[in-house]
Design goal:
alpha/beta; Rossmann fold; Zinc Finger, Delta Prime, domain 3; 5-stranded parallel sheet; 49% helix; elongated
Length: 586
Amino acid sequence: MSYIVTARKWRPLVYDDVVGQEHITTTLRNAAATNRLSHAYIFSGPRGVGKTTTARILAKAINCLHPKDHNPDNACELCLEITENRSVNVFEIDGASNRGVDEIRNLRESVRYAPAKGTYKVYIIDEVHMLTKEAFNALLKTLEEPPPHTIFIFATTEIHKVPLTILSRCQRFDFRRITVEQIVTRLRLIAAAEKITIDDDALLVIAKRADGSMRDAQSVFDQIVSFSGESIDARQIMQMLNVVDEELYFRVTDLIKAKDVGGGLMLVDELVRGGADIRDFLNGLMEHFRNLLVVRTIGSTKLVETSEAYRKLYEENAKLFTENDVLRFIKITGDAENAIRWNGQPRLRLETGLMQMIRMDKSVQIDQLLQQLEEIKKKLSGNGIGPVSSLKPAEPEAEAPIRGSVKATQPTLRPDQIVPLMMPAGISAGSYTNPAPPFSTPSQSTTITPAFQSEPTISLSNDEAAGKWPIFVEEARKTKIALGTMLSGMQLIDVHQDRLRIGCPDDFHLDLLKRNRQFLNEIAHRVYGAKVLLETTLTNERPHPDQPPQAVIPERPAMTSASPKEEIRNHPVMKALIKEFGAVEV
């Protein structure tokens, strides 16, 4: 007897032998048992998953003279004729070579005749999507109302190319891709029957190479047997098929962890010298990163298709990287594979991709960065470094803040620093009140520096205050750029002893100074050499943004013997009314 390839020799003969398509074989068997056979079926799915084989089993089962549990016995005359492809009742037609209207016209003529043997005439059209549009249209009427003794079975790998008018007249069955475990189990059975020794790692390599196709797996199995004989191991398969050893993918992750760029370039050179296909290597590397991501995410290797030894390695390597890191590896690998597909230069693309992954910094979550920043702020605040107001909220004071003023922080004194307050002669302590400060108006409240302080105060002259005002603004800008910029739009309008009155153009600037009063007091302390009280007031003058900060300090008017009427006319409030509202004297 001549040699028969494994795919033909071990072709399933009954429904139970069809691997991975139980949802279809059970339905067809039940349909035959209840006499609910359809007049047209369409089987769709990838290559090598059993579409044509299932069609043959169905043709034998409905014509078998002695069926067993609605399976063909494969021993009667009709079953043997169908198996040997010499039956006059079962016609297998290639849709690619019989795709025209003339072929369909001949088919319509033959359909009208009853079967010479058996119960049904079965027409199996493989790759039915190859028929022309006119051929499909010519088949519509016959397909919708065929003779009761005729059954059509269509098979296709591209179901989307079949017209909807055909699909609506057929029962559709979608065949699934066969899993790696199912292929390994079937190949192990075949190897045992053929008395061939092969280890599980070799079977796993064959099954993964088949990509869900049993026919491809059996073809590779025949090729391996011809190369290695009756004893096969995984190394021989990798050598013959030029498959990249899975160990190389773990070497890539080791190089990434060690930041070894030179080792990555040497690995690429090893692949090229070994004759490996770089696109296949990149596809395998992407699957390797996918396995790492799965193990990292679910904490288990049950979704990883590999040997037990490599499962343990995946468990160990998954702890070395975060999910974001692995996702970035997959992105870089995919970009390199696409670049090779469209632009060529596979070695260069692989080298640059590996260098990117090796030099890549570890991913950090944004919430972790924010948490670290908060910890740094707390440490700086505790050590007194940096602007305290920007690191933590100011503690509430005993007194409510006064709008339009910036108050200095009340000092804390030791008992030996407290000086008794001397009352003027003739005035009791209960009736004594501080005099109102200068430059106060009924609409403005100010804060008075206490009579005793932990540090001495100084009396500032107009020239000193005006000369140091730009320095004050620049010091604020160094630490808080926004505050310093806003402060440059304000003016120093008055100086009296240790008080500086700052003019603000609007309420927004007033609130800004209020929120940063402690920070500004500290800067004023450093610039002027003593505690200085900052007071604010509203002004209508708004300096140009490009103009440097200025200190506009009006000279104090000399004491004159002006009349009361002139004093009222020269009052700042009256001047503002005249300027802004056009007030006139009546």
